[in-house]
Design a protein that fits this description.
The protein has 3 domains: 190 residues, FAD/NAD(P)-binding domain, CATH 3.50.50; 141 residues, D-Amino Acid Oxidase, Chain A, domain 2, CATH 3.30.9; 146 residues, no CATH class. It contains 15 helices and 20 strands. The strands form 4 sheets. Strands 1, 2, 7, 8, 9, 10, 18 and 19 form an 8-stranded mixed beta sheet that branches. An 8-stranded mixed beta sheet has the order 16-12-15-14-13-4-5-20, covered by helices on one side. The chain has a two-stranded antiparallel ribbon with strand order 3-6. The relative contact order is 0.14.
Length: 531
C-alpha cells in the first residue's frame, strides 16, 4: 500500500472542507494539503445539499477572505434579505403582516446553489495547487498524540487503496462526524427540532402569488422571490430559497414536540401538511409536482459537540462539529469562525509555538459564540407564528449579531486575546442581556394579543438598524473598534428597554417588572410604530 506524508489532510471536500483548504492555501502557500471527498465531481445542480442561504459573516468570508466575490456575483443570486409572512392556514399573503425590507440593504449576502458552488470550489482548489481527491472513501484513521502524526486509510474511485500520514488531521466530514463519533463528542444541546426539504425545478415567484397592487408595489424592485422567504406559524417556519440553476428550495422546520416528523416525512405527507398550514406554498408546489427533484429530512438536526480543537493537531469544522439551526442561516458563519481558528492554530504550530493554551482559548471562544447563538432558537419556536413578538425578536437578533459577532469577524479580531480581555465586561454584558431578552420574548408571546394586521414592517426604515448594516465593512482602528463595541452594547441596552416598554404598552402589564432591569440606557432605538 502506497503511503505518502502531508502537512494537512482534510476529511471531507464539501463547503467546509474546501473553504478550509482555500483559506490554508491563502495563508500558507507552501503547505501540502490533501482534501478527501466521498462524492465524485461534478455534483448535481440544485438537488445536492441544503444550506443555500448565506448571511453577512458567511458572505464576507466567502467574498473577501477566500476571494470568491466574482463567482458569487456572477453565478449565484444576490439575496433580498430575510422576509417573513405570518400566514399559518392562510393563502392571502397580501392581508397578513410582512416583515422585510423594501430596498436591498448595502451589505451583500447570497443565495447559493450548493452544486454549482461546490463544483467551483473543487476546481478552484485544484487551480490553487491543492490536492483535491473526489470519489474517495475514508476506510479508517488513527489519531496521533503527544506530537505523533496521524494516519488515514483510503480507497479511491478505482478501488485502489492507499494511506496518508499527516501532521494535521482536519475533520470536515459533515454529519458523518468522523472524529466526533470516534471520540464520542456528540452532545444533546436541548434544542429538539426537525426539518424536511425538497427542490422544485422551477422558480416559485412569490411576487405573482396575488394581484393586489398595493402589496406588489411595496418592494423596489418587486423581487421578493430573491429573499429567503419565511412563511411562519406556531412552532414552525417554512423556507423558500431561489437557486441560480432555476430551481427553488422549499423547507419545513419545526419544533419536534409541536409538529412530529412523521406528519411530513414523505413528499405526499409534506404536501398535506403544507395544505393545512401554508396553503399558498402547497398550491404552487402542487402545480409543479412533476418537477420535483428530491426530498429529504433530518430528525433532531441540532446537536452539540464537546471538543473542536486539540493541541494534538486535530480539529473539526462545519457539521463535523456542532450544528445550530437553519433559521437565520448561521451554518456557513460558523464554518468561517472554525476555519479561522484552525488557521491560527496552524500558524502557531508553524512558528513553533505551544498549541495547548490557544487550542483551549479558541475552543472556549467558539463555544461562547455557539451557545449565545443557540439561545436565539432554543425554546423559541412556539412564538414563531406571533406577528407581534417575532418581528421585534428578529430586530433584536439582527442587532445583536451585527453589533457584536459581525464586528469581531469583519475586523479580523476573532483571535485577538488582548481585545477579548479588555472588552470582557462589555461582551459578557451583551451575552447576558441577549439571554434575558430571549427569555423575555417567550413571556411576551404568552401574554400578547396575537394581532396580525395587513401591512409591511420595513426594517430599512429604522435609521439605526440600516446604519448598522451599512457600516459593517468599515475599516476600524483598534481604538475605534473598542468604541464601536461599547456603543453597540449601549444600543442593545437601550433597545432592550424600548422592547420592554413596547410590550407593556401593548397590554403586557405583568411584564412591567422587567423595565427595572432594562431601562438604564438613555438611548432608545426606534421600533416599528405598529406590529
Amino acid at each position: 500500500m502506497i503511503n505518502t506524508t502531508h502537512d494537512a489532510v482534510i476529511l471531507g471536500g464539501g463547503l467546509a472542507g474546501l473553504c478550509l483548504a482555500l483559506q490554508l492555501r491563502g495563508e500558507f502557500p507552501d503547505m501540502d494539503i490533501v482534501v478527501l471527498e466521498r462524492h465524485a465531481h461534478p455534483l448535481p445542480l440544485a438537488a445536492h445539499k441544503v444550506g443555500e442561504s448565506t448571511v453577512e459573516i458567511a458572505a464576507h468570508y466567502l467574498a473577501e477572505t477566500l476571494g470568491l466575490r466574482e463567482h458569487l456575483e456572477t453565478e449565484h443570486i444576490r439575496k433580498f434579505g430575510f422576509r417573513f409572512f405570518f400566514s399559518d392556514g392562510r393563502s392571502d399573503l397580501e392581508n397578513v403582516t410582512e416583515l422585510g425590507v423594501r430596498k436591498v440593504l448595502p451589505t451583500s449576502s447570497y443565495q447559493i446553489d450548493r452544486g454549482i458552488f461546490e463544483n467551483f470550489l473543487g476546481d478552484e482548489a485544484r487551480r490553487r495547487g491543492i490536492d483535491f481527491r473526489d470519489g474517495v472513501t475514508v476506510q479508517g484513521f488513527d489519531m496521533g498524540s503527544h506530537g505523533d502524526a496521524h494516519s488515514v486509510r483510503c480507497t479511491d474511485a478505482g478501488g485502489e487503496q492507499y494511506a496518508l500520514t499527516t501532521r494535521w488531521l482536519l475533520d470536515a466530514s459533515g454529519r458523518a462526524g468522523l472524529i466526533r463519533r470516534k471520540l464520542d463528542l456528540t452532545r444533546d444541546n436541548g434544542h429538539h427540532a426537525n426539518a424536511v426539504w425538497f427542490r422544485i425545478d422551477d422558480r416559485l415567484a412569490i411576487d405573482g402569488w396575488c394581484s393586489d397592487g398595493d402589496w406588489q408595489s411595496r418592494c423596489t424592485p418587486a423581487e421578493r422571490w430573491r429573499s429567503t422567504n419565511h412563511l411562519c406559524g406556531p412552532g414552525y417556519w417554512t423556507w423558500l430559497i431561489p437557486l441560480a440553476s432555476g430551481a427553488h428550495s422549499v423547507g419545513i422546520v419545526t419544533d419536534a414536540a409541536m409538529h412530529p416528523i412523521d406528519t411530513m416525512n414523505t413528499f405526499a405527507r409534506a404536501q398535506d401538511w403544507l395544505g393545512a398550514h401554508q396553503p399558498a406554498i402547497a398550491r404552487e408546489v402542487g402545480k409543479r409536482h412533476d418537477k420535483l427533484l428530491d426530498f429529504a429530512f433530518f430528525r433532531h438536526y441540532s446537536y452539540g459537540c464537546a471538543r473542536m480543537f486539540s493541541a494534538d493537531r486535530w480539529a473539526l469544522t462545519g457539521e463535523a462539529g456542532p450544528f445550530l439551526d437553519p433559521f437565520y442561516s448561521p451554518g456557513t458563519d460558523f464554518i468561517a469562525i472554525a476555519n479561522t481558528y484552525i488557521c491560527r492554530l496552524v500558524a502557531l504550530d508553524r512558528a513553533g509555538q505551544p498549541l495547548a493554551p490557544y487550542a483551549r482559548l479558541y475552543e472556549r471562544l467558539f463555544f461562547s459564540f455557539y451557545e449565545s447563538t443557540l439561545t436565539l432558537y432554543r425554546h423559541q419556536y412556539p412564538l414563531f407564528g406571533n406577528a407581534e413578538v417575532l418581528p421585534i425578536k428578529v430586530i433584536w437578533d439582527y442587532a445583536y449579531y451585527w453589533g457584536v459577532l459581525c464586528q469581531l469577524v469583519f475586523q479580523q479580531r476573532l483571535g485577538d486575546v488582548a481585545l477579548f480581555a479588555d472588552m470582557a465586561r462589555e461582551l459578557e454584558t451583551a451575552q447576558a442581556l441577549n439571554e434575558r431578552m430571549q427569555h423575555f420574548f417567550g413571556r411576551w408571546h404568552v401574554l400578547s394579543q396575537g394581532r396580525n394586521p395587513r401591512g409591511m414592517l420595513d426594517q430599512g426604515m429604522l435609521p439605526w438598524f440600516a446604519e448598522m448594516n451599512a457600516t459593517l465593512h468599515d475599516q476600524l482602528s483598534d481604538a475605534a473598534l473598542r468604541t464601536r463595541l461599547r456603543e453597540n452594547v449601549d444600543l442593545l441596552d437601550g433597545l432592550a428597554a424600548s422592547i420592554v416598554e413596547r410590550a407593556v404598552a401593548d397590554g403586557g402589564d405583568s411584564l412591567r417588572g422587567d423595565m427595572h432591569d432594562l431601562t438604564r440606557a438613555r438611548l432608545r432605538p426606534t421600533l416599528f410604530a405598529a406590529a
